[in-house]
Amino acid sequence: MPRLRSALEEAGFENVATYVQSGNIVLSSSDSAAKAAQACERLVKKEFGLDIPVVVRTRAQLAEVVKHNPLGKIAKDPKRYQVSFLEKKPSAALVRKLEDVAAPAERVVAHGREIYAWHPEGVARSKLWAALAGKGLGVTATARNWTTVTKLLELADE
Prior knowledge:
four-stranded antiparallel β-sheet; Alpha-Beta Plaits; 6 helices; two-stranded antiparallel ribbon; 158 residues; 20% strand; 2 domains; alpha+beta
């Protein structure tokens, strides 16, 4: 992550901060979110030889994700509460598919380009988590637990 942070700063991004070792980056850019995502993808390919899609949210969009929090009243363990950030809004058919694979105790809510998922028994054997984490979504996505989501918003506010 320190090498990635340095590469992003050298590329002209400002206020670059990283959180844990899974590609969580907060930065400032005068570019649009789409242009910043493209620039980050090119940089990761050039500097690290990795072809990894990048999902970007502005500070305002991330704040809305936290504010919306549709499962906040039932999701009491932030490590088992996940938000999947999608490149585009999921189709109704995809949302139905996710609802169908969810275990009885699990909950899933789609809102905009995010899918909120509560896994009260963990993700290890969750078919819902497997569906969210797999390539079957048909759209570029990345998931973070609630602890990470709120920490990224804190970093964006610093």
